């Protein structure tokens, strides 16, 4: 198999795995709120396509999930998988966290890549990657009427931005293979988020004065 | 009048009636929150065009309410009508419910039709119909800082999806006239939602453990 | 310098000043919630580009902040400025209010102008101006999980609509220079909002029955 095909296939794999991860993260969050199956499916859908949809609208390219049934099928599988996993595993917090972090890492990369393909400035690409990674989760949390994760654990966005910066640096200045660059970025984002959660456990007072002094 | 014209006119009628219904639903909700007339108008606008705007952005077609003043005028009439109705009728709950259900049914159909016109897969069309039907109400509820109706009474989305599926089935496999297909779908959606409200009256405990176990 | 160049330069000045104002308004709001620097930057970004992004998507023109780094740089400067100002000045309420009002006035004008350039009906342009002015702040407040300012102090939208109407009236029916029309509009919007805040101080009971009678 030649490099180009491998590259394309690896990108497709990332997109599919990110879609399933975010769909599961959305489905878990919706099941926590005791939604019926259709509600679970809708939240899975919104979490999964939210970021990429906004990215494609901003880039004025065809919206990725409308071209065929691949993404919708993946989301359906992700939602069903989440319902199945739920019957084995009751610790939603950890499961949701893992899939959310994976989705974040995977989607950030896709967003940056699409920006680079459109010949945008690296900083704009980084913004686009952050939007792609974060917007689905934000929409999920808004729809579930929760304080968006990204703003309760701000390191969420930080992970996204730091990971994305590494991706851009390695792409421009390293001789690493494309796949290695992508895997490094995903690992970095997941590691940062895991450390972030530990960090919050140690500093829960960080948010104590949250609701004081409203405008 | 030939069939084509009748068909176009009936579609226009559905769009106008759906716009006025959702505008009234938005205006009632805003009046409940004691908004001033401009606030009422804005919520009426957002509720009415929210779904269709997202649909048109996704399809990359001109946004429907920007081409002329028809939609804006209908929204204005809807908002004024709501203010007038309010002085006769104080039972917002029922009135809001009726207009919300009607708007849902009407807009779901329009979304599916626009998707079919763009040669999308029926499942994608159904998604588009659900988005068109539900997104205006979700935006209204987010802006009013209420838990979105669709997620308090999930059967809302279910009504949309089941109704849309009937519409697609009848369009593809029945010999019903187009108008009959549309009317059946609207009736089905309103009936499902009415039953859903009754269902919730019987099972209020369904949401009891809502806010437990946040991520 | 000829009139056309002056006009273009003044428009650019308005866009830059509006961007910095909204970025600072977003940054102040995020700092109130004790966000880390990346969180502050993201809220500054969202507040600043939210309205204009939706406007450009609706008009189907390239999204303004993606073409170059000018807007992103301005947002960065605005966020840093806000952090610096914070160390001198602890009265967030007033500072946030001033920058929010300025941004509102400036962005409303830009929205109307872009609508007029696209040959839209004046009423649609006014709608577009209101969207450009208000949507960034709404998104900021949704993301911060606050009741959107626009719906706590509805005069916010009223200021936007009244100011925009003045702008259209003066553009069509007066012989004022373009710059004078723009400055009058901004002053009117800031004055209306300032009076509105006073008005609310006198009528805090206006919202008392807010959460009663939910649908």
Automatic annotation (TrEMBL), chains A, B, C:
Bilayer topology annotation = Multi-pass membrane protein
Q: Which residues form the Glycine transporter domain?
A: 13-85, 98-170
Transmembrane region(s): 12-31, 38-58, 64-84, 96-114, 120-143, 155-173, 179-196
The keyword Transmembrane helix appears for this protein: yes
Q: Which InterPro entries match?
A: Gly_transporter
Q: Name one GO cellular component term.
A: plasma membrane
Compartments annotated for it: namely: Cell membrane
Q: Keyword annotations for this protein?
A: Cell membrane, Membrane, Transmembrane, Transmembrane helix
The UniProt similarity line reads: Belongs to the UPF0126 family.
The name on file for this protein is Trimeric intracellular cation channel family protein
User: Which species is this UniProt entry from?
Assistant: Planobacterium oryzisoli
């Amino acid at each position: 198999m030649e490099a180009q095909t491998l590259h394309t296939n690896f990108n497709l794999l990332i997109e599919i795995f990110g879609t399933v991860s975010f769909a599961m993260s959305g489905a878990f969050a919706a099941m926590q709120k005791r939604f019926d199956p259709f509600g679970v499916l809708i939240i899975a859908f919104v979490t999964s396509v939210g970021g990429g949809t906004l990215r494609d609208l901003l880039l004025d390219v065809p919206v990725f999930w409308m071209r065929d049934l691949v993404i919708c099928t993946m989301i359906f599988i992700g939602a069903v998988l989440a319902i199945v996993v739920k019957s084995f595993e009751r610790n939603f917090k950890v499961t949701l966290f893992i899939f959310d972090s994976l989705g974040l890492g995977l989607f950030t990369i896709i967003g940056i890549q699409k920006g680079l393909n459109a010949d945008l400035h690296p900083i704009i690409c980084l913004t686009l990657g952050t939007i792609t990674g974060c917007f689905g989760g934000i929409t999920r949390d808004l729809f579930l009427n929760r304080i968006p994760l990204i703003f309760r654990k701000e390191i969420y966005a930080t992970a996204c931005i730091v990971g994305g910066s590494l991706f851009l640096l390695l792409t421009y200045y390293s001789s690493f293979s494309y796949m290695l660059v992508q895997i490094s970025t995903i690992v970095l984002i997941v590691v940062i988020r895991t450390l972030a959660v530990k960090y919050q456990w140690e500093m829960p007072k960080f948010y104590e004065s949250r609701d004081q002094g409203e405008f």
